[in-house]
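Q: For a teaching handout, I want to show students what a protein-ligand complex looks like in token form. Below are the inputs, and the small molecule is D-serine. Please produce the holo structure.
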Amino acid sequence: MKDPAIEKLLKKEAERQKYSLDLIPSENIVSKEVLRVLGSEFTNKYAEGYPRARYYGGNEYADELEELCRARALAAFRLSPAKWHVNVQPYSGSPANLAVYLGLVPPGEKIMGMQLAMGGHLTHGHTVSATGKFWTAVRYGVDKKTELLDYAALMKLARREKPRLIVAGYTAYPRMIDFRKFRRIADAVHAYLMVDMSHFAGLVAGGAYPTPFDYADIVTTTTHKTLRGPRGAMIFMNRASKIAKRNGVDIAKAVDRAVFPGLQGGPHLNQIAAAAVALREDAAPAFRAYARQIVRNAKALSAELARLGWRLVAGGSDTHLILMDVASQGLSGKEASVRLEKNGIIANMNTIPYDPRPPMDPSGIRLGTPALTTRGMKEKEMKEVARLIDAVLRENRDVRKDVRKLCARFKV
Ligand code: DSN
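A: Here is the structure, written as tokens, with D-serine included.
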């Protein structure tokens, strides 16, 4: 490489990833093939428009690529092209969500989503996000006692506020979502049901989490989390959506037009190519085993943390993620994540439901198992990881050597 400064950083980052335990639930480690394609010649090409309807010449292979990626996206979730249309152009999750609102909800109208501090996402209507500025956000949370979704309360809120679109799917909710109940709530007020499955999409593809496709009008997802692909996103649109029909909207056309030309310019073809590679991997039998192991690992990690006396939000996990209430042991989330990082354990501070502390120094840390599971770690190692976390947080012990030893046994 002719750029020693960047080469040095690349090496350092590779080394950091190799010798640290990545417990951030939204991160993963992509295959060599995904990396190779991400750095391919497709990055050189402009392809504004959609297959067979581009604004530039030279797109014969771009057309083939985008069509292949779409077909693989549908296949990964076992969807029929007669029922579902997919757009694979969104640059990432935030623009994907924004495109859905832009395509389906008139500006100023109501969208209903979970508060960020309860486990939602900025793009589910937070005031600092464009989604909370251009649309009126109706925000919901979880039940204070159980820390679970309260569907009866959601129904009441929806009936009172009458949103045009309801979002389900979160960044820090460790339990399963009942999509059927969400469908009933959305139907009661004639709202679109949008599921943002970014966090658990890989679990859906691998059959380790209920599918939202039986109930949703729209499903959005990033491609880089549990799906183990490049950074990017996709939007699935249900051609049979009764709400779209009622509103006289062609859902596929409306959302496609919102992505381009509504929000974006040329699609990042190298990202789309790499997503196609990842989606093929996601449909393979080995990925089913991977998805199940992610969940088994999260259960093992949470069981050991609970045994060691840590309070977990909602009592544990059915997914890939765990929310640990460190304030219940007198620590702040920031202090905990800094202390863990010094020992090579990477987690992020996170608010917990009804957090009395501020977001920049909240009560919790969020943990997840997708990246460690990709490295081949299983339940036994999860117990070890839980004990390392406990040693750092409870006794302020230096476990750097143990972390390095564990990492050395599992390649990135
Ligand atoms: N940043 C992602 C996460 O960590 O959950 C959400 O966009």
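A: Two things your students might notice: The chain has two domains: 33-282, 287-409. The two ends are 22 Å apart (CA to CA).
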